[in-house]
Amino acid sequence: MAFWLFKQEPDCYSFADLERDGETLWDGVTNALALKHLRSVRPGDQVLFYHTGREKAVVGVMEIAGEPQPDPKQDNEKLVAVPVRMVKRFVKPVTLATLKADPLFAEWELIRLARLSVMPCPEEIWERITALGEG
DNA sequence: GCCAACGTTGGC
DNA sequence: GCCAACGTTGGC
């Protein structure tokens, strides 16, 4: 079982939308490195949901609900999408400012590669963020 | 609204 | 295959 972080602009699809839907297909990823990561996810993997834009915070946890599959909205076999399901909303969102203030996160892709939307999450970072988020 | 960082495209 | 120009993302 592995840990990941997925980013999304909440005006496009928010954690509240996932709470409403329960499960959704995470699609629309086109960046090569993000796709490489997305093809590596496995059912049961745990995923942090990060809101970009105004919020800039990790807002909750979801889990991979199925195998990566061709993105049904794209006419390109290289592009994949993956089913995800809601797990829990954080009591307290963990803001980017909080993460930037702690050197533990400085080398992580979330900080180093601002435009990457799918990335692995080292277990140490997972533990720290979920501890902060669960208050 | 601006800009830095990065990815993509297209001419050569 | 290189690189300049351009487009996009996301933080500020």
Notable characteristics:
135 residues; globular; alpha+beta; 7 strands; 7-stranded mixed sheet; 5 helices; 26% helix; DNA-binding
The helicity comes to: 25-40%
SS-based structural class? alpha+beta
Kindly state the number of beta strands: 7
* Percentage of β-strand residues: 25-35%
| Cα radius of gyration in angstroms | 14 Å
**Quaternary organisation of the protein chains:** single chain
Sum this structure up briefly.
This protein has helices at 15-21, 32-39, 96-100, 109-112, 123-133; strands spanning 3-8, 23-26, 46-51, 57-64, 69-70, 80-95, 118-120. It is of the alpha+beta class and 135 residues long. Strands 1, 2, 3, 4, 5, 6 and 7 form a seven-stranded mixed sheet that branches.
What report would you give on this structure?
By secondary structure, the chain is α+β, with helices and mostly antiparallel strands. It is built from five helices and seven strands. The longest helix is centred in the C-terminal third of the chain and has 11 residues. It is globular. The model has no long low-confidence stretch (mean pLDDT 95). The chain binds a DNA duplex (12 and 12 nucleotides) through loops.
Secondary structure: elements and pairs:
Layout: E1 3-8, H1 15-21, E2 23-26, H2 32-39, E3 46-51, E4 57-64, E5 69-70, E6 80-95, H3 96-100, H4 109-112, E7 118-120, H5 123-133
Parallel strand pairs: 1-3
Antiparallel strand pairs: 1-7, 2-6, 3-4, 4-6, 5-6
The chain binds a DNA duplex (12 and 12 nucleotides) through loops.
